[in-house]
Specification:
The protein is 31% helix and 29% strand. The protein is α+β, with helices and mostly antiparallel strands. The protein folds into two domains: 3-158, 2-Layer Sandwich (Ribosomal Protein S5, domain 2), CATH 3.30.230; 166-281, GHMP kinase, C-terminal domain (Alpha-Beta Plaits), CATH 3.30.70.890. The strands form two sheets. Strands 1, 2, 3, 4, 5, 6 and 8 form a seven-stranded mixed beta sheet that branches. Strand 1 and strand 2 (27-47) form a beta hairpin. It is globular and about 55 Å long. The structure holds cytidine-5'-monophosphate (C5P). Cytidine-5'-monophosphate (C5P) is lined by residues 26-27, 29, 135-137, 152-153, 178-179, 182. Residues 26-27, 29, 135-137, 152-153, 178-179, 182 line the site of cytidine-5'-monophosphate.
């Protein structure tokens, strides 16, 4: 029986725009996505019994069918028709309910890992299609790197890698419900939108400060009035010399991009005085499938 270790990289939204509400209640999005080196660690072992067993090192996370990693394994066995099951152990490093795609990254890593263990029965396209049945962020998490994501998040265009930089991420203690934040946004009344075309142009030109100046997330407009952590964290990151700072996904994590490690480390240490979950990481390139 085979086994494999797979990394589930966190994602950040360099930009997030909501274009329209779709008839099925979901939203049409336009996002520039970036994976970062910070990752959960997965250990997958195949077993004869057609059972999926999951363990996670955080006691408050479900280990049953509610966990997207278990759902992904079930979907893989159903789709391929392979007999048997697997044990999956997950060590979580990505903050939970942060807008960093932690659950999606775990699900995507299970699909990549199982596909490798069985000798790639699913093509790249099939793997992406299967991943999308499990959640809108999964297709990007399967591929990683830097990408433009459209549709519900599944229409991906790979982009040139982000220029060398340092990223400080801070997750305040409050969390925001993704469906609630989506329900608060009216795509027809969004005051400011990210300059996505400008970001793409700057990525092409390897212009890091141009990218960072244009980072924007429309969900920041519909955050609850209090707590004010998102704007406070952004202010701290910018005061420490970040080229740009923005909330990722539906939050509540906020990140700042720095061109110098020293400035990033100073920001990390300063934020650690007020917040428990503060990390320094770097962009991660696309994952080979
Ligand atoms: O696809 P996923 O299950 O990750 O989406 C979680 C929630 O986010 C959905 O229930 C929906 O409220 C919202 N969503 C949306 N439009 C998208 C993606 C997510 O409205 N394109």
């Amino acid at each position: 029986m085979g086994e494999i270790r797979e990394r589930a990289y966190a994602k950040l939204n360099l930009s997030l725009d909501v274009i329209s509400k779709l008839p099925d209640g979901y939203h049409e999005l336009c996002m520039v996505m970036q994976s970062v080196a910070m990752h959960d660690e997965l250990h997958i072992r195949l077993r004869d019994k057609s059972q999926i067993r999951l363990s996670v090192n955080l006691p408050f996370l479900p280990c049953d069918n509610r966990n997207i990693a278990a759902k992904a394994a079930k979907a893989f066995f159903e789709k391929t028709g392979f007999k048997g099951g697997c044990d999956i152990d997950i060590i979580k490093n990505i903050p939970v309910c942060a807008g960093m795609g932690g659950g999606s990254a775990d699900g995507a890593a299970v699909l990549r890992g199982l596909n490798k263990l069985f000798g790639n029965p699913l093509s790249h396209k099939e793997l992406l299609e299967l991943s999308f049945t499990l959640g809108s962020d999964l297709p990007f998490c399967v591929c990683g790197g830097t990408a433009l994501a459209k549709g519900k998040g599944e229409v991906l265009t790979a982009l040139a890698p982000l220029p060398h930089c340092f990223i400080v991420i801070c997750k305040p203690s409050f969390s925001v419900s993704t469906p609630v934040l989506f329900s608060k946004i009216d795509s027809r009344n969004i005051k400011y939108r990210p300059d996505t075309a400008g970001i793409l142009n700057c990525i092409d030109k390897e212009d890091l400060s141009g990218i960072c100046r244009r980072m924007y997330n429309v969900f920041e407009e519909v955050l609850p009035e209090t707590p004010k952590d998102v704007s406070l964290i952004k202010r701290t990151l910018l005061d420490c010399g970040a080229l740009g700072a923005v909330m990722t996904g539906t939050g509540s994590a906020v990140f700042g991009v720095f061109d110098e490690a020293e400035k990033a480390e100073k920001a990390r240490l300063l934020l650690l005085k007020s917040y428990n979950e503060v990390f320094l990481t770097q962009p991660q390139g696309a994952i080979s499938i």
